[in-house]
Request: fold
Amino acid sequence: MSQSAHAMAGAAQKLRSPISEQDYRERYRYSIESPEAFWREEMQRLDWMRTPEKIINGHFGENHSRIKWFEDGVLNVSANCLDRHLERRGDKPAIIWEGDNPDHQRIITYRELHQQTGQFANMLKALGVGRGDTVTLYMPMIPEAAIAMLACARIGAVHSVVFGGFSPEALAGRISDCASRVVITSDISRRGGKQVPLKKNVDEALAIKGTDCVEHVLVVPCGEAPIDWQSRDIDACAMMKEQSATCDPEAMGAENPLFILYTSGSTGTPKGLMHTSGGYLLYAAMTHQQIFDLREDDVYWCAADVGWVTGHSYVVYGPLANGATTVMFEGVPSYPDYGRVGEVIDRHNITIFYTSPTAIRAMMRHGDHVMDSSRRDSLRLIGTVGEPINPQAWHFSHQIIGNGRCPIMDTWWQTETGGHMMAPLTDVDNVKPGATMRPFFGVRPALMDAEGQHIEGEGDGSLVIEGSWPGQARTIWGNHERFEETYFSTHPGTYFTGDGAHRDADGDYWITGRIDDVLNVSGHRMGTAEIESALVAHPAVAEAAVVGFPHDVKGQGIYAYITLMQGAESSEALATELNDVVRRDIGAIAKLDAIQWAPGLPKTRSGKIMRRILRKIAANEVDSLGDISTLSDPDVVEALIKERIQH
Ligand code: 6R9
Reply:
């Protein structure tokens, strides 16, 4: 290490009071050896209406799938995020909102957030929504999204937030899967100076079969244009004003559902993962506080959208449970230009910034001077999530965004895990760029080989987690068998993450990416099966195979191999149509980066598509195709290589 690098690492260490190596090891050991005692202490982070006596019930193994944490505890999530802060933090900003337009800002104190949540909750009640009812949110990044989530939590309703970039088709599928009675939306969402017609998408979704469960659509008006009101629609702002701000929080069991969040898997339709009130909230709050070394005067900005799990745990629930100031950003990092991120940091004196490697790479591509319009002196810690962070992006974050002063917390976790599972956690001096390093307290990672045997010491394998933690999803909404099958059948007795990982000689972990058929495009999870099923629904398509390939900015791009029906002709126009069907079924985030017309697809003799080979061709790694002798028609591979699309 050069002298200046030493000096920088030293400075970073001083700025943070990280858990020392020894403290980490001791506390970690305690969390693993005495989980009951450990979690009994930690659960005191929350305000319970009835303190749990039972801590953990259920171990992976025989009765693995019915996990319960703090099962006799009673609490309310919104009371933990709001009411308990009023005395000490009533006038503290709970949400600082920065609009897409840099001139638009709003500050909402804890007292105001409490009042507005009460009004929103009373409005939901007036519409007949109560305990256990499901409510779908399809919202822009505006404070009302957080308010609606907290209002559901207040009355015991279960929210399902659908990312605003999903299409009406995708929204309809998610509404009908959990049979929502109410949908909450806005007329428009503003992103990068453009408008997304959310309400129009909802209207289209509700014309699709299976959505007649919806009785009301609450619309939070945001735009200037007149709204095309339907008879089921209600102006949420107008109705809220008529409501009392007092709404007693519902007493909920720790295991009662708090929310459902749909995510993609390697097969089938998106899965509605269910998270609980007690274990989830505790885990989100605890990881948020410890991994970001949260302090009372921090101004914390997580740039994720509330439509993803990161937005749930680290824009809304974790920070608010901790009484922190959380920044909500409506726009995109590139608007009006790539200097925006730094300007937002300066404007609000942000101290902790949590973002994705994709966003960092997009800024990095524009050169170091993109940061010239800001100083970023307030920053003291940067976190990343969603994808592996490559060393260049790590160094750009550390040297340029963080002025060489900020530790980088590369956090590995998933929709299913509820909160961070691994992060560097200890002294920044020892951090290795690109490694997520250490398990969080109570988390027991392990590596498995292809035969299902444990890999000890240094090695590469399938990452599993041994034993439960409070934040884990408990089921797939309406399909518990699928939950068991997906997560607990691959390596019985463990939770299967779907990720591969490397453990180095020091015992530190490096996530190497998905080992199943899940893509990670700009940190967004997508199932290849979902995209393929959209493609094969087109009458000209006989077969489709979709794989990821390395992409400089997005991490992964989408590469589709299409075999046409006899008589169908490939053309630019057809390529556009195929992109359109994917956009219609899933959304613009699933844009195909490359389409290759394939005379056939490489298959095993049993008819299984050899994706390994398709991935290699898409990545232009044709020298390492491996064994293709088991293919039913090896000539297909030659043809595919010849016609490979340059991207
Ligand atoms: C939180 C979130 C989960 C998948 C996960 C993995 C990838 C997330 C990562 C990471 C390497 C990190 N992933 N964080 N890979 N390093 N720090 O992103 O949830 O949308 O469910 O995605 O994202 O592949 O399995 P989700």
User: Anything to note?
Assistant: The radius of gyration is 24 Å.
